[in-house]
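Lecture notes, continued. The same structure-token format from the folding unit now serves as the input rather than the output. Read the line below as a description of shape only.
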């Protein structure tokens, strides 16, 4: 069942998210949505991406993340189509920063990573001193929850998503482009779009691997 708030969208669920029968139990629907989410490579995310109303719903979902101290210790920066070449330049510079001997082919491959998913968002953690003094780990958990809220909402709308990071995240070039200040960290890019080709999702760990009783 699609939550009532989201019925204004016209979701076209990817094959993995389609269920043969309508799920009417909200707990079961939530579980099925969560289980169906999986990482899709930005190479397989094509147009169309979320429209403006859908994008606003993604921000609303992010804003619902748990947030100890209510610091909003994170921010998101969209990279619109007309700024992708600037991001490509930053990826290229980041590569040269860490490997001055990188080949032209490697530099072009780095640059090309900026041109994939229709919706591309940088997730930034704010770890600057603040009142109340909430630990960095807690702030990162809050950002992780905000990202997951966003991913699940995109999934409910019928889009695929994937996270990307890598060594460019800490580079001077990327920090400069996004105007990051001391204490802000670029954590990952969020890629959202229509899935061109589904891949089987990974096998998830059994709860016995990560649950114990004291
Ligand atoms: C902060 C963060 C950064 C990530 N960066 C990458 C990345 O650079 N490349 C990649 O292929 N996957 C990346 N991922 C996605 C994980 O590889 C993916 O979530 C994992 O393989 C589990 O698969 P699933 O999401 O389909 O369950 C990242 C995930 C997180 C949480």
């Amino acid at each position: 069942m699609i939550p009532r708030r989201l019925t204004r969208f016209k979701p076209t669920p990817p094959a993995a998210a389609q269920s043969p029968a309508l799920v009417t139990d909200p707990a079961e629907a939530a579980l099925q949505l969560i289980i169906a989410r999986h990482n899709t490579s930005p190479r397989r995310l094509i147009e169309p991406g979320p429209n403006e109303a859908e994008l606003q719903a993604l921000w609303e979902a992010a804003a619902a993340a748990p947030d100890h101290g209510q610091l909003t210790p994170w921010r998101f920066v969209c990279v619109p189509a007309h700024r992708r070449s600037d991001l490509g330049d930053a990826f290229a510079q980041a590569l040269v920063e860490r490997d001055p001997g990188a080949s032209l082919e490697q530099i072009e491959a780095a640059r090309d990573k900026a041109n994939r998913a229709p919706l591309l968002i940088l997730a930034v953690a704010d770890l600057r001193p603040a009142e109340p003094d909430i630990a960095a780990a807690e702030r990162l958990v809050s950002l992780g929850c905000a990202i997951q809220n966003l991913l699940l909402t995109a999934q409910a709308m019928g889009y695929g998503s994937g996270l990307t990071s890598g060594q460019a995240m800490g580079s001077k070039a990327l920090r400069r482009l996004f105007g990051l200040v001391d204490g802000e960290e670029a954590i990952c890019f969020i890629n959202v779009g229509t899935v061109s080709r589904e891949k089987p999702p990974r096998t998830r760990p059994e709860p016995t691997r990560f649950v114990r009783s004291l």
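Point for the exam: DSSP finds seven helices and five strands in the chain.
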